[in-house]
Structures are given as C-alpha cells and as structure tokens.
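Here is an idea for our session: we take a single protein and study its fold together. To get us started, please write out a protein record for me. Start from the sequence, derive the backbone structure tokens from it, and show both lines together. Go ahead whenever you are ready, and we will take it from there:
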Amino acid sequence: MAVIIEPIIKNIRDTKVKIFLESKGIKESENDDRLELSAWLEHLLDSGRISEEEINDFFFEELMSGKRQLVRIYSLKSVRKMKRVQDWTDFVREYDCPDLSFNRIISTSLSDEDVKVCAINSKIFDGKIQKIELIFVYKIKLEKDNSISATYSYIPVAFDFTDRKLTIKVWNRDDVCEGYRPMEQLDGIFDRLQDLLDFEIMPASVKAQKVLYRMSKALFDEFYGHLPSVTEVKNKKANIPVIVNSLLDGITLSNSIIKNGLRTMNDDVINVNDEIYKLVQQIALFDYLQDHTLQDLLQNTDKYISRVRFSDRDNLTASLTSEKGVRCIFDAKTFMCVRNSLDLVEQIVSIVVTFSQNSGKGLMSVKYDASDGRFLTIHVLNSRYYTNDDYKKIWELYNTYESEYISEAEQLPVQFDVEAM
C-alpha cells in the first residue's frame, strides 16, 4: 500500500504528531536515524508499530480543526433531500467513495485529479443521516522565492441536519498562488457540493448581524459585571427619577412629561434616566481603572470583546482597532463610547472575541464576521492552532445567541417574520 504522509504532516503541527506517538508508547528518542517526521511515521507503519487505522483516525481528528482557521458556516434552508443514504448516490459515485463511512487519508493521492474525498464519517439513526463529516483533498500550488510547487490542502466539511448547518474549513495560508487562494478553495468545494447534492442555503447577513449585536451587548455587560461596585451602581437606579426631576425643574421644555408624579423627558427625544445611569456606570469604571489594571477585571472572565465593527441605522460602519489591541476596546473612555453606541446600532458586522481559556498557551482571538450575505465567517486569528474542543467553545458562544434570536423570531407574527427573512 502506498502511503502519503509528507503533505498530511505539513497540515498538522509536529508536536501533535509526537504526542500521538507517545500515547502509543513510541518516544521520539527511539528515532535513532533521526528521520524526518513523515519518513519516521512511514517506518512505524511498515514495521507494524502503529496501524493504518490508528494513524488515519488521528489524522481525521487533527484535520477537522488545527490549522484550518478560516471557517464558513451556511444555514441550510431544506435538508429533506439529503438525509437518506441514497440521496448521496451521485456524490459517492463521483468521488469513488466505498460508502458513507470510510477513512483512507494516508492512501489517497492526487495524480490527474484536482480534488478527492479521503474520508467520511456519518452519524445515522433510524435510517436517517443526522450528521456527516467528510474531508476533501485539494491540490493547490504554492509560490516561494519565485518558485512554484504543488501540495495538498485538506478541507473538512460537516453537514449537521439537526441544526441545519453546513460548515467548511480551510487553512488560511498566504503563500498560495492565485486561483488556489483559501477563499477560492472554499468557493470550489461549496460549488462541488451544490452540483451533486440537493440543498439550498438561507441568506445569513441580517440574522447573523443581529446575533452578533446580541452577543456583543451580552459580552460587554458581562465584562462590566466584574466591576466590584456594579451592585452599588445598580442600586442607584431607583434614585435617578428623583434626580432627573430636580435637574429639569425650572427649565422650559416642550417635550418634558410627568411620569409617576416626576418630570422627565419623552423617550423619543432622549431617555434621560438611561443617560444618567450610563454616566454613573462610567464614573465607576473610570474610578476603578485609575488605580487598577484591565487585567484585574479580565482575569475574572474567560472571554471578552477585543474589537468591534458595527453598522448604525444610516448603514455607516466603524471599525475600532489599534495597535494597543485589547486596550482599544477596554480603555475606559472607548469602552463606554462603544457600549453606548451598541444601544443605537441595529446590526454588528463583525467582532473579535478573545478566549483566555483554551487548549494552548496564551489567548485565542476569534473573529466572527457577518459581512457576507451568504454565510457567517469564523476566523481563528494569529495562525492559532486549535482543537475540536476549542471549536465547540467558539461555536457554542455564537449558537447560544442565535438560538435566542430564532426562538424570539418564531414568536413574532408571521408577516413580520417573512419580512425579516
């Protein structure tokens, strides 16, 4: 059996391979010939120290995440014609798949073909497919020092028919020749799926941007909630109507009203109570950061927003970024400015969330981008190598607020729901 190890290894971090081998009782010190990692794996396979099944299973797990930091998530409109095994007949025939559950990653090579399927994992219950994961092998060209070379890109795809999601991931490397760019690979795989499978996608931008808006507000509130005086600030809300009445007394105002016996302003003009409450919050934050660092607050949370780009009612956009990174958003003045702006906008185009707890060392920054009307993009930044458990955490954060949005939308009158879609 011919094995293809070297291009696969380039798609996986070396340390992950060594950890896998150690789990099988094989230590790096045993490689007396100091072979390249790919050659050593081939030697271990030939000698029977590890089996083809073991290494294929390991590769499948790593190729589903790891370096594939650029992710597209499509919402499926209909899945009825994809859930039976026979619905995949044309796909299986086109890509010469033995069935909907196989793994021949190390024995799949590309000669005249540009794309193949090297593995499929299906979850089938009562004759219906619930989830199907597959890995495409995509031949790409790289350019380095004016020299062109060919290699393989491994692109994992997942259809989740319960959540009605299609996920496609790719390694967002920057040394790829034109025609093989990561975005072009994603487009190519999506087109191939649509050619052979019967599914439709739903527009994503409006819903996704509203979900990011909810997510942003919640994360900002969560951050502020770690302020030691947050309860004391909340308790001041009860006193605000009296303060507003005192401030407005004696001023000629055409749009002031009497509410519960106290003078205030018509909310359509300005919500004075809310503005004063925000001012008290701002005072508390300014005071805290005068004597403490941001890390004193951030150490109590496992995730926070480090960048945000939003659209307001006039469809204007703003991107709050700087070389200071986290400080850009959580500087006291900027934080309050952005937080107040969230109350005015209708949709968030993109946000970057930093996760402090993950499988690696240091912080993991993830961009959620709803700028494309066809799909949501998730981008694990800074070439961070991530695990499937990391991805579950990344997706769960978004999915929580998407589920809330869908739940509320389903309770709206039908005619409103149609317009929203």
About this structure: The CA atoms of residues 6 and 38 lie 5 Å apart. The longest strand covers residues 128-144.
